[in-house]
## 1
Amino acid sequence: MYRLPILMSRISRSILTLVAFSFISLSSSFAADTTSSAAAPATTPALDGKGEQLFKENCKACHKVHGESVGPGLSGVSKRHDAKWLHAWVKNSTVVIASGDKAAVALYEKYNKAAMTSFPTFSNEDIDAIIAYVESVPEEKPIVSTPGNEGTTQVAQSGGEYDTIVLTLIVIVLLLVMVAMFVFLTVIKRYLKDKETSLDGEDKELLNQKFDIKAFVSSKGFISIVALIFICVTVRACWVSMQEVAVEQNYAPIQPIAFSHKLHAGDNQINCNYCHTGAYKSKQSNIPSLNICMNCHTYIKEGPKYGKLEIAKLVDAYEKGTPIRWVRVHNLPDLAYFNHSQHTQVAGLECQKCHGPVEEMEVVKQFSNLTMGWCINCHRETAVNSKDNAYYDRLLKVHEESKKKGAMTVEQIGGLDCSKCHY
């Protein structure tokens, strides 16, 4: 007569135990998810047009489109000067000043007799492209806050935030189920307690059993599970440690001069290529020389964070002809070959793809682990930039004829061959 309630009681205990384990497991996952978050690498917009690219790589360090910086704002420059004058000025401003040109001399005097960097390799078309770009950039109007909209911002919800919300809901549902099962089990137990005189010995034992934590901990099942978890955790920790041998991810050494990439690349939006001149044209990206630093710091003697102290170190080293001993952050082993221009110029990758959001870093750190597996995975996922490149025409045709789905990746053009990086 009472077999059904007893059976339900046993099932309820089993379900309650299962839900409790699930709740504990998900709670730990949720805690790990909310306490450890990896910042997604910020990406900069792709360069749109030759003029924009030339401006960002060569002009942006000293000029803004709207408003003054080290030099004058460039908006409206085509109305202030004719094309012939601009061509001569950009290629060699010193010659134009020496000729006695009134506009050139006035500019020279206005900006503390600082001669603009010459660009003799620029063609007239290059200069025209830069001018066309700066004239096309609209002036940004300041956002005026109105009553009622203070502090309202649009925030794009990332995939990580979405996962956290889903996980939170699952944990809440499991908690509610666990409470419901506990109430249900209590009701059944009370019902059976009233009928205890009619139960047999086995059912009475089930009804009156109490949880003995000492017996539970000393049981073979518990010891076996704990031992298995310990072995799994130990093996995984050893495996992860072996994989991280010689991996310097998050390495952020102290430099001889405090230098903020956030200030230079982020706030002032100086293009990476202005300082690291080889990033788009050679194997090495190059550490900037003191001459490049002094292009700006001949006039800028005090910074917003470190004041005059750190810039004074820079100027002192320049005047004494002593190179700065910068500490290298990214260092691949000698057995691996890597070419910056192949990735930035040919593949069109942004610097942040490997180096992370440098424009947000006060102190630069190694963002990616730079392991062979990381590189190989990138080659498997990255599509070949074949636009306007006749070299890839035949490969694209073969790729399409073989009916391969999706874009042609680096892997499919030999990107996983050992000799590509090791020779």
## 2
Amino acid sequence: MGRLNNLAYPEVTLTIDFGGSGTKGIVQIRGGKPTAFWIEAAVIEVPYTSLAFQTRNLGNAYPENTAWVGIGEDYRAVGYLARSIYSATPRLKPRKYELALYKTLAAIWVIKHKFKLSDCFDISLALLLPPGEFEDSALLKPMLKEALAEFDTPTKKINANLVGYECFPESGGIYAMYCKNTGEAIRRKVIALVMLGYRNASVIISRRGILNRGKTARLGMTKMVDLVIEGTSGLEAEELIEGIVAAGNEPKPQHFYHLYGSSNIKDTQIEKIISVVNSSRVEYAIALMSWLTEVLPNKNELDEVIICGGTADYLREELDALFPTTPIVWHGGVEVPQTLNEQWLGNRLADVWALSVYHGIKVRAIRRSGGVGEGESGGQEEGRSGGAGERVI
């Protein structure tokens, strides 16, 4: 792993997971307790004059719902504001790092507003990207450092000093905590890390503590949602996902009542949806299990499989069947504190929570030890075998 720059002990320690369904994060203000947040995934370019008008009265709304940021002449609405006012979609096709800059800045404004911070402060970041996009972390770091120095927001310009930066592949937080809990045994095992999110599915293999680069496919929950939309009519992904997840492997009419009003043919429509959801789940599971079988090592070689991500719980039955003899460690054994579950995200917070614990330990250790000078970083071997973190400032 890389080490943190100790030019200043950060006032804000922030960990972010850029999920396809929303940006999840853990923030800790110096001297305070960790707090979770969630911001919708949409991002859209909008003129400053329109943004200023739409957010002229901030007193009646949560900052998560009124977020926008400006870098030079580039202004973007983020989250609920982008979706509700400007009809932005989650935009699952662009690589995550392309929008991560704006999502990170928006999260920082939300934090600054909620915790009443000054306009200038030091911040340390730990970010999660899909394994297939992990190399993009090298592109994201200078973009973030430059933008953080001054960016516009619905209140005032913010000047944040980036004093620490780490980037991990998705499931990296869970793996880091698993290594800490497992100890020396990690050097003797072959472990598969399977992360199933909303947009992507990814696999990383740890062979005796040495991680490969990992593989990523567009086989997250959105694949199943698309199948349901293709088999029905007039439904949107945001409307469907709530019912699909709540239904699990036993969809019932009550899970989909919210999709229709008092239509006389409502029961017939819902019966159709349930039928399509059932068939789509089968098709989606076949595609995902086929891909996992292709990219995973031989089951006789695997000592354990760590399965994590929000979609993992939905497909638990199928995943159990895929690994009848290989031990499965669900969500790496990470338990998210109830105090962080205000958004009811549950296990979807496991990866970012675990990474925040790891990152926070490093930040506190740097403070106690006196830190590392500008430009120093951890060795390559440590980055490869211990947890796949991008080096920091």
## 3
Amino acid sequence: MSEQQSTTSLSAEDEARLAAVKKRTGRSAVIGAIFLMATSAIGPGFITQTATFTATMGAAFAFAILISILIDIAVQLNVWRMITSSGKRAGELANSAIPFSGHLIALLVVIGGLAFNIGNIAGGGLGLNALLGIDAKLGGILTAALAIVIFLVKKAGPVMDIVLVVLGVGMIIMTVVVAVIAQPPIGEALRQTFVPDELNFATITTIVGGTVGGYITYSGAHRYLDSGLTGPEHAGPVMRAAANGILVTGIMRYVLFLAILGVVASGVALDLSGQGANPAGQAFGAVLGDAGLRIFGAIFWAAAISSVIGAAYTSATFLSTYTKKLAGGWPLQLATVAFIVVSLIVYLSIGTAPAAILVFVGGFNGLILPIGLTVFMYIGWFRRDLLGAKKYPLWLLIAGTVVTLLTWYMGIVSVGPIFALLGIGA
């Protein structure tokens, strides 16, 4: 009898220990999802785009940031809720609603993710160049190598989560310090946030693509699936997690804009052309001299490597749309590593200026954003059975539909100017 009691007691202890481990893993995945989305959205592309457009548009660029945040809210809340309620990744969910649509979305996300990752590795090179003075291409190699090491460790998920949180918090703190010292014209920035002197759809499409387009749309939601807290009954916590991620990115976007605006408003002219152009680095250097350039290098590199991780991981998860063998575990890790290696090889092979790449990839992903949104809005309106619930917030569907139509319009009118960034088209 005592032996049986001992066995039962041991089994209960094991179950309690297992439950505690699952809870910690789930909490780590949720935090990781928030910061994966946030750090992906404030990567080197966004930083370079912000510096470039603030230099050309001044305070009027604040309106584009406001629009990007509003679009972010409508997109992320819908995508997070639908993916986690269904328990399926985006490609699989899309295929369940419209045959082969998931394959199309997966293809576009992987292509866009590759474009993003080339830019992210380029950004890592620029960051280490500013921080340590090493060659930008060598910096790109080191950035890619460290990202690969992170994915090859035994417990890649938890390690990735810790790295993303540390990098995200560090970026925000350093950017706030620079913004305070730069002393931007806050009153003018607030006015033009709502009443801009200039409206440029190509700029808005590019900044939207750089903060919520392509793989970024699905990065946080796919990571959240790893928490196991899926199904419509978890819709509340999911919405709060998505909102927290949007809050982090929104603060970072506006603070970075204010930091650059303070420099531009003081009369400093940023060089936006040439192979070595690094407008954001110039802005930080103008505020704090050599120390500012080093701080920029640290921020830019942190943004780059976290975005390399986000782009590679999320793009690799979409490959499971084509084969279930890549749904998780070592196959997914190896696919992620292969994605980074390919991105690095392409970056080392091309001769386009890194800053130009970082601006273009935002525009490119802004162009493909409405395609995936259209499928998800169809699911929300007509295939709620796939979400495990009969009801879905009407306000969320209306907001998502309005944003979908808006991104289609912006994409159509912005195709020419966006491809012109690389010397293609008019």
